[in-house]
Amino acid sequence: MSTDPVNLTADLIKCPSVTPKEGGAIELLEELLSGAGFECIRVDRAGIANLYARWGDKGHARTFGFNGHTDVVPPGDIATWTHAPFSADVVDGVMYGRGATDMKSAVAAFAAAAVDFVRDTPPDGAVVLTITGDEEGDAMDGTTAILDWMNETGEAMSVCLVGEPTCPETMGDMIKIGRRGSMSAWFNVTGVQGHSAYPHRARNPLPAMARLMDRLASHALDQGTDHFDASTLAVVTIDTGNPATNVIPAACNGTVNIRFNDRHSGASLTDWLRAEADRVAEEFGVEVEMRVKISGEAFLTPPGELSTLVSNAVKVETGVTPELSTSGGTSDARFIRSHCPVVEFGLVGRTMHKVDECVPVDQIDQLKAIYSKILQDYFE
């Protein structure tokens, strides 16, 4: 009997696994995979539940890996949902629930595909599933914890497919072969407080902040590459906390977010930001402190065997030739890319993180078929 990914998706949605809560989702998958002959090891860290499941010999030269997460973002105001966020209600062939798109359906689909594949056609190789509960959070103790443990214990994947929703409009229309890097920078400009009627007795941090933000936002980082759009910088906030109209404040804060391609690194952009901040500090006679957080570096898995393998399976099962893209935000592929070649393919992502997040149930079956075809072709 084949493993039903639709029922498994429903069971996972019913687990209230809002980051960092496990909610029963990891335990459910561990029970399923253990029963199918997978060696299952919990790789929990800092209160985050993570699962490593392997069928086949450790360290086999041909090991296909899947990666996904069972944690979900909060549902928000439950009263605004037509169907309860953890009900997995099915209406007119559509299943509703938090995580239906991002990404419990994909986890269910690749788990079901893996279970059936190793049972029906045991491969000469290994199949690995890495499933985390920390993708929607800080991502410090999820996939990174699993990869750290793998490096320590000699576990490895030859290639990996991440099941994030990748299709913008129709099932099969996009595969992600890379992701832009992401970083944020916080600036604190400190001057001297004073009366607005006597500006010469103060040192106003606001013009300095305005100049800095303008220079950063006006600068063209690049014109894009063969596989990436141009890098972007967005000013996301400027704050003084000053309610008075007759006071020049002593300090001002500003924040920018950068999405960058592989022409840059987090370090090179940090150097540029620091140089611009120092330039403004000297021009205006203020102090500028800067703090940076690099969420992920840009990476690319060049078109080749892995992307062709996935593209062919997608086309066979959907009739659509997928675009190879690097668009969108970050995913856990940014961590896996240092371990092995990685691409991403999953559902249409239009409803992810929204009220009444949902998935057509036939797309769950279709996604399982695609993942099954990928496994068959890889081990042939």
- Mean pLDDT score: 97
Number of domains: 2
Overall helicity: 25-40%
Order of strands, main sheet, comes to: 1-2-6-3-7-18
Give the beta-strand count. Answer: 19
CATH topology of the largest domain: Aminopeptidase
CATH-derived architecture of the largest domain: 3-Layer(aba) Sandwich
Q: Give the radius of gyration.
A: 24 Å
Q: Could you state the CATH homologous superfamily of the largest domain?
A: Zn peptidases
- The outline comes out as elongated
> What's the SSE pattern?
HHEEEEEHEHEEEEEHEEEHEEHEHEEH
**Whole-Å distance between the termini?**
23 Å
Structural class assignment: alpha+beta
Distinctive features:
6-stranded mixed sheet, 380 residues, 24% strand, elongated, Alpha-Beta Plaits, 9 helices, Aminopeptidase, 2 domains, alpha+beta, 32% helix
Topology of helices and strands:
Elements: H1 5-13, H2 25-35, E1 39-42, E2 50-55, E3 63-69, E4 90-91, E5 94-96, H3 100-120, E6 126-132, H4 143-153, E7 159-162, E8 174-176, E9 178-179, E10 181-190, E11 194-195, H5 205-218, E12 232-239, E13 247-248, E14 251-260, H6 266-284, E15 287-296, E16 299-300, H7 305-318, E17 323-325, H8 333-336, E18 342-344, E19 358-360, H9 361-379
Parallel strand pairs: 3-6, 3-7, 7-18, 8-17
Antiparallel strand pairs: 1-2, 2-6, 4-5, 5-19, 9-16, 10-14, 10-15, 11-13, 12-14
